[in-house]
Amino acid sequence: MRLNNLHIKNFRNYDELLVDFHKNVVIFLGENAQGKTNLLESIYTLALTRSHRTNNEQELIQWEKDQGFIKGNIQKKYTSVPIELFLTKKGRKTKVNHMEQKKLSSYVGQLNVILFAPEDLSLVKGSPQVRRKFLDMEIAQIDSVYLYESTQYQKILKQRNQYLKQLAEHKQTDKLYLDILSEQLTDHGSKVLLARQQFVKRLEFWANQLHQKITQSKEELTIEYRSSIPGDHWNDEQAVKKAYTQEIEKTKDKERLRQITLVGPHRDDLSFLINKKDVQTFGSQGQQRTAALSVKLAEIDLIKEETGEYPVLLLDDVMSELDDSRQLHLLETIEGKVQTFLTTTTLKQVKDKMSVEPEIFYINQGQLEGEDV
């Protein structure tokens, strides 16, 4: 899979830009605050309909503009597909092959991307919320059912939390409605839990291979899914739902007191172990970064395994955060098989380590200079 071209209008600091890409490695070169990251953000947003930098879509549209768009032509193994994302003050609209898509699950997955930015190096050390978002965004690209189930789960979770507050304030007394919401929550939540657990097992397989390569087989990486639902029945949806329902029942008094749902996928986390020791607590910064790098690169092979196509890789100034050894492993992993878009302020750390000739675009205040611009 590759992105053949990109057309954006009224997006961040870009009035309008139409650019074609011909090579497998594309470098956006320029000083800070010129728009390099905005370009990667536009590709990420085109793929997933949402930004990795903000939850407010209004921020993506240029100041004093009512609407904008991002368009691209996706080259797949047997076909090419144009996809379009229109952003307005009232919401977004998506098209695949010029046909409007009513369901988000019909759009997401047309272009698979992996973003690796400096903040992703804190995937291991960062907050549980960061890791949950990582799981949701990555699984949604390869599993449209998961995207639906997780969206429904979040919707019902919000309704349930609101109702818990109403119960506490005695504005509502219909506890039967709470039971209905709990039933719906466990129904969707069980499917989310199973999909996450299965994804983590596959991710661990690929990540451990890369981690052992980087550490010259001195370290073994294990990834564990830490659920707020007890048990180890992660291949049986009914067993998971039963355990989930029992846990909801156990915590119902605490939930009404605290006015919030206390168990479910929204409370879960990942653990990373190196040689069976928790790297989040006991690992060095180098070990934490190597684990994060292994996990991000593992997604490349995992997505290929699931979809039959390699994803597009977005590297946002990440080379400057890695030492020479990790830079080398990163480039060895991607070269020759993955279309890569890379931002940097200098070519020194990048070009000399590459065996292929990259396509270079110079960016200055939202303007590109380079081939075919």
Task: Please explain how this structure is put together.
With 373 residues, this protein is of the alpha/beta class. The chain folds into two domains: 1-112 and 318-373, Rossmann fold; 118-308, RecF/RecN/SMC, N-terminal domain (Glutathione S-transferase Yfyf (Class Pi), Chain A, domain 2). Helices cover 41% and strands 23% of the residues. It contains nine helices and 15 strands. It has helices spanning 36-48, 128-142, 144-168, 175-214, 237-250, 252-258, 279-282, 285-307, 324-334; strands at 2-11, 14-20, 25-29, 67-75, 80-88, 91-96, 99-100, 113-116, 221-226, 269-274, 277-278, 312-316, 340-344, 359-364, 367-370. The strands form three sheets. Strands 2-1-4-5-6-7 form a six-stranded antiparallel β-sheet, covered by helices on one side. The protein has a six-stranded mixed β-sheet with strand order 8-12-13-3-14-15, with helices on both faces. Helix 4 packs across helix 5 and helix 8 (285-307) runs parallel beside helix 9 (324-334). The relative contact order is 0.17.
Helix-strand blueprint:
Blueprint: E1 2-11, E2 14-20, E3 25-29, H1 36-48, E4 67-75, E5 80-88, E6 91-96, E7 99-100, E8 113-116, H2 128-142, H3 144-168, H4 175-214, E9 221-226, H5 237-250, H6 252-258, E10 269-274, E11 277-278, H7 279-282, H8 285-307, E12 312-316, H9 324-334, E13 340-344, E14 359-364, E15 367-370
Parallel strand pairs: 3-13, 3-14, 8-12, 12-13
Antiparallel strand pairs: 1-2, 1-4, 4-5, 5-6, 6-7, 9-10, 10-11, 14-15
